[in-house]
Design the sequence.
């Protein structure tokens, strides 16, 4: 089945070029030219991924991204932005975008980024893999790696693709302390320290979603002056969580 992509881009020539290339690559692509039309399209249709220009009429890309995530929409988002808009890139990632590309866009790279995101968010088909991965369990939290589901007390928690990847990376190494730079490189694939506070924003959103009391987290703990770690079983069993949050 063809994956459905929504391209929100106000420059008609770029929209036509990107759409033609992606359709030749096997995707089903819809295009809209402003943010308000994009929001309407996302309210009435389901898409597997959104390509979102930041400089849009009607509603800019950052406002649209913020609105989608605040409404619990976890559709993967790739931002398109100008080369020198580092502040917009950081803000977009903090608001919940999953990846970004700068203009002029390399179409092969765009396709590669799309396929990478879709692989991470794809729900497995009916056939089971030869070696299924066991869920990660910690306290009342269960992380299903195969289905990319997170449950707390049996209730499903909606995470974006990047939030899920970050949680899994931490949970696979309970007790290990990661610096922000390490998480940025391991989860996002970026090695620019300029984006390190993007990690903080994702951690804060994760805590809001998975922690019973985000102000006093049980699962994702801060190690002051260093970074973050995921709790160990002994922490939950004994209540021995003394690190500041």
Sequence:
């Amino acid at each position: 089945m063809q994956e459905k992509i929504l391209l929100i881009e106000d420059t008609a020539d770029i929209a036509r070029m990107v759409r033609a290339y992606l359709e030749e690559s096997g995707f089903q692509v819809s295009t809209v030219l402003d943010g308000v039309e994009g929001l309407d399209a996302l309210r009435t249709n389901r898409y597997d991924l959104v390509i979102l220009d930041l400089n849009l009429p009607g509603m800019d890309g950052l406002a649209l991204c913020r609105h989608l995530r605040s409404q619990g929409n976890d559709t993967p988002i790739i931002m398109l932005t100008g080369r020198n808009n580092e502040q917009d890139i950081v803000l977009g990632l903090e608001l919940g975008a999953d990846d970004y590309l700068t203009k002029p866009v390399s179409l092969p790279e765009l396709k590669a980024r799309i396929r990478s995101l879709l692989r991470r968010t794809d729900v497995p088909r009916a056939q089971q893999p030869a070696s299924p991965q066991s869920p990660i369990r910690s306290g009342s939290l269960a992380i299903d790696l195969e289905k990319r589901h997170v449950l707390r007390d049996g209730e499903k928690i909606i995470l974006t693709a990047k939030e899920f990847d970050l949680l899994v990376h931490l949970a696979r190494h309970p007790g290990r302390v990661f610096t922000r730079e390490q998480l940025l490189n391991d989860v996002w694939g970026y090695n620019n320290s300029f984006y390190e506070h993007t990690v903080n924003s994702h951690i804060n959103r994760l805590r809001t979603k998975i922690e019973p009391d985000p102000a006093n987290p049980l699962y994702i703990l801060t190690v002051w002056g260093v970074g973050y770690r995921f709790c160990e079983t002994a922490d939950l069993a004994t209540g021995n969580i003394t690190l500041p949050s």
